[in-house]
Design a protein that fits this description.
The complex is a heterodimer of chains A (420) and B (366).
Chain A lengths: L1 H13 L5 H27 L14 H13 L1 H10 L10 H22 L8 H4 L7 H28 L6 H28 L12 H27 L6 H32 L5 H7 L9 H19 L6 H21 L21 H29 L29
Helix pairs in contact in A: 2-14, 3-5, 3-8, 3-9, 3-13, 4-5, 4-8, 4-9, 5-7, 5-14, 7-8, 8-9, 9-10, 9-13, 10-12, 12-13
Chain B lengths: L3 H14 L23 H27 L7 H4 L1 H4 L10 H19 L4 E3 L9 E6 L8 H9 L12 E6 L22 E6 L8 H5 L5 E3 L5 E3 L9 H5 L5 E3 L14 E3 L11 E3 L4 H4 L6 H5 L5 E5 L6 H8 L2 E2 L11 E4 L8 H6 L6 H4 L1
Parallel strand pairs in B: 1-8, 2-12
Antiparallel strand pairs in B: 2-10, 3-4, 5-6, 7-9, 11-12
Classes of the chains: A mainly alpha (420), B alpha+beta (366).
Chain lengths: 420, 366
């Protein structure tokens, strides 16, 4: 127990240790997170009126980001499946970074939901009267927190075992949880999609294709994000990220993005060819409605980004990392727009009574969002900061870690055979 | 046995940090100037201490500055602390209710100097409330809208309204064609009809189904209510409502003290705080004790009819039986208790019904 507390303490200490780039990056993230916290405090005092949301468009950027991040959280599973089901060797040592990304993303998700609440001080009401199984939001509470715990367990256990130089008891404490997490990752998407899909009042959401589209877009944006992240890890830490691993992820992105595009086209065909009253929201999104066009530039940007990214990924060019990275950045941005602003906001326009009120986020709202993103990236950076030395055997229970002389610890390798 | 991962990575780690700088904790080691091991120990400690102290102080100061807006929180109106242990309405004992009602009365007194009564009339046995609205009569004057605001202590700034009257051009029922912001000084406008929409008190309400904390539910007399002290403000119900009948308090509601309606119901028109949902309750503090809803009383055209549908002699029962009624958005399956109808030239009652059909077609039809 005391060993574990010491482990946590050392994790805490090491998160402050690094080069100037690291410190600058952390300082930047901390500053943005604090600006976000400040903006959120203003929102707490004055109410959600400081956001751009209205009774007409009652969910905005917070829920949009939440939706996108649920997708990121499931990116982990796209590393886990090749490794544990198809026995892919290249990705094996990288799985943990995907799982850590899931942890950071889910924490961001929970924060985005919390800042969207009018009375966050009453969150305990969830424990006192829980409308399960009728409210999809209660399902979401369960699956998101469950996924968080699963990934915290898997990553925490693996890291601690490495720290203690113990062979993890995979069959008992890892593999079962990994397989549960695979199914669970799909469930967090499905449940989040069902949150919207189940509302007959919103024809734009009331479509069975939303859940499959969620999965497809998440399985392209998530691994794309990992492709970028892993390169950053490979570049700035001693951790070795093999190139074939990135190429495996690239294949996943290509397939998922293709499926996503196909599903999107199916959706668009149904909406626009039928041309019933249901199409109003989609018309608003893609072409504007009665002169209101706030989302039109956004969605066409997304369409352009995703299309170009898809074409680039299919070209042999994308085997060069530079082009692959460009395509990944484009598709992440494209899917963020498509799944966030493009999926949440238009469902509210026109309102169920046919009124058109547009939504423009306020500066305060943007700051809160930026703050949560910064906090999530801060967490992820710390996770990586801890994980890399532990996994490479340089931060273990029997190595000295003295923050005063952090760069000159006495390296004392464990005697051969002590690791069991 | 060594873990494979330790083998592979320990090999790669040597190259990056370079030059035998076997930094076990500094994974990056790229570019960071490192104090040599030979540096005077005390100097390092002091400098390091000062640096840490500065960083901690700066961090705490920044954190405090970020939190500083919280000083403006109004504890009286937000009710966070007093309300924390309050139970859900359905779990309250009569004593609990009395304590909660007393607190609400006290708050109204301190804020507005008004002595309010907080009633909690129960749903009556054998009563199911239904609204019927005659679209032939409604002329869009919006008296109902304003009477509702006054009766139900809604925020005046910004003004929250439960009833939305839509000016519809003749010849369509596409709500997108309607005008929500018409000028009610010049009604009725030629070639238009007026469609007032408020909570339809659905028999199969999507809003109560989606609430994660059961803060909203349907009462036995058909009225869907909100426990304002239980709502967490997620606005899922607002997204789920096909009639746009729910409203959210985006800011702290503001009502001039002289306009407070002191006749309050716990589940209806008592004051709300920011961050919670509210909605039309068919004025249950009035209707459960035999009065009519405020919107009906204010209507100068007689377009609004309200009553107990389980009483066969009530206005609404007669209308449902004899008039051609319809509900909005029947396809969403919410089974509203709010019906619309038009005056008819040939009511389908008994002999009149037959008389309306030309003699030579009668057999074909029946």
């Amino acid at each position: 127990m005391s060993q574990y507390v010491r482990f946590l303490w050392r994790c805490f200490r090491i998160s402050f240790v690094g080069g100037w780039r690291y410190h600058l990056w952390m300082l930047f993230l901390t500053a943005v997170a604090l600006f976000g916290l400040n903006a959120y405090c203003k929102q707490l005092v004055h109410g959600l009126g400081v956001t751009g949301m209205t009774d007409q468009v009652s969910w905005g950027l917070y829920i949009a980001n939440f939706t996108f991040l649920v997708g990121m959280a499931a990116a982990a599973v796209m590393l886990v499946i090749p490794v544990y089901i198809y026995r892919n060797k290249e990705l094996h040592d990288l799985v943990i970074f995907g799982e850590l990304l899931a942890v950071a993303s889910i924490i961001m998700c929970l924060l985005f939901v919390t800042v969207d609440l009018g009375r966050p001080d009453r969150f305990t009401h969830l424990f006192r009267r829980f409308n399960f199984p009728f409210s999809m939001l209660t399902w979401d509470v369960i699956v998101l927190n469950g996924y968080l715990l699963l990934n915290l367990h898997i990553t925490g256990y693996m890291i601690y075992c490495h720290y203690m130089r113990r062979e993890p008891r995979r069959a008992l404490f890892v593999i079962p949880f990994v397989f549960v997490a695979i199914v669970w990752a799909i469930s967090i998407h499905t449940v989040t999609a069902f949150l919207y899909v189940g509302l007959g009042a919103r024809p734009f959401w009331n479509s069975a294709i939303i859940a499959p589209r969620f999965l497809a877009s998440a399985f392209s944006a998530g691994p794309a994000f990992l492709i970028l992240t892993l390169q950053v890890i490979g570049r700035y830490t001693t951790y070795h990220v093999p190139r074939p691993a990135l190429m495996t992820l690239r294949r996943i992105v290509v397939v998922a993005l293709t499926i996503n595009t196909f599903l999107l086209l199916s959706e668009l065909f149904t909406e626009f060819y039928t041309d019933s009253q249901h199409v109003a929201s989609a018309t608003y999104l893609y072409f504007g409605l009665h002169g209101y066009t706030a989302l039109v530039p956004w969605i066409w940007t997304a369409v352009a980004l995703n299309t170009i990214a898809l074409i680039m990924l299919y070209l042999p060019l994308a085997r060069s990392l530079r082009f692959l990275n460009l395509a990944c950045v484009m598709l992440i941005a494209g899917i963020w727009i498509e799944k966030g602003m493009g999926l949440i906001v238009p469902a509210f326009i026109p309102s169920p009574l046919g009124e058109i009120v547009e939504y423009v986020p306020t500066l305060n709202e943007l700051l809160v969002c930026a703050g949560i993103w910064a906090f999530g990236l801060l967490l992820y950076t710390i996770f990586v900061r801890i994980t890399v030395p532990v996994l490479s055997g340089r931060l273990t229970y029997d190595t000295d870690f003295d923050p005063e002389t952090e760069n000159h610890p006495i390296a004392r390798g464990a005697p051969e055979g002590s690791v069991t | 046995m060594r873990l494979p991962i330790l083998d592979t990575t320990s090999e790669t780690s040597a190259g990056c940090c370079g030059g035998g700088d076997d930094a076990s904790t500094d994974t990056c080691g790229c570019g960071r100037p490192t104090p040599g091991p030979a540096a005077p120990r005390r100097g390092v400690a002091r400098r390091s201490f000062l640096r840490t102290a500065t960083a901690v102080t700066g961090g705490l100061a920044a954190f405090g500055a970020a939190l500083s807006p919280l000083r403006e929180i109004d504890r009286e109106t937000d009710d966070t602390f007093a309300g924390f242990f309050q139970k859900h309405y359905k779990e309250m004992t009569p004593e609990d209710k009395e304590a909660v009602f007393a607190r609400i009365r006290e708050r109204v007194r301190t804020q507005h100097g008004v002595d309010a009564t907080i009633a909690d009339p129960p749903p009556l046995d054998g009563v199911e409330f239904v609204y019927a609205l005659n679209l032939s009569r409604c002329n869009g004057n919006r008296r109902c809208v304003h009477a509702c605001v006054a009766e139900n202590n809604q925020s005046r700034s910004p003004e929250m309204q439960y009833i939305r009257v839509i000016e519809m051009p003749n010849g369509t029922f596409n709500l997108e064609e309607g005008d929500h912001h018409y000028d009610d000084a010049t009604v009725p406008k030629e070639g238009h009809f007026y469609l007032p929409v408020q909570c339809h008190q659905c028999s199969s309400p999507p809003c109560t189904k989606v609430c994660p904390v059961e803060a909203t539910w349907q009462e036995p007399d058909g009225i869907t209510v909100v426990d304002y002290d239980w709502c967490i403000g997620c606005r899922y119900c607002e997204a789920a409502c096909p009639y746009w009948a729910r409203r959210f308090n985006f800011t702290q509601p503001e009502i001039p003290s002289q306009e407070i309606n002191p006749d309050m119901g716990y589940l209806s028109n008592r004051p709300r705080t920011k961050g919670v949902m509210e909605k039309c309750t068919f004025c249950l503090h009035r209707t459960r004790v035999g009065r009519m809803p405020a919107c009906l009383e204010a209507c100068p055209t007689g377009a609004r009819k309200f009553g107990n549908v389980l009483d066969p002699n009530s206005d609404v029962s007669q209308i449902l039986k004899n008039s051609r009624v319809f509900v909005l958005k029947e396809e969403v399956g919410t089974l509203p208790r709010f019906f619309y109808y038009f005056d008819e030239r040939h009511p389908r009652t008994g002999a009149d019904d037959q008389a309306a059909i030309p003699a030579d077609l009668r057999e074909v039809v029946t």
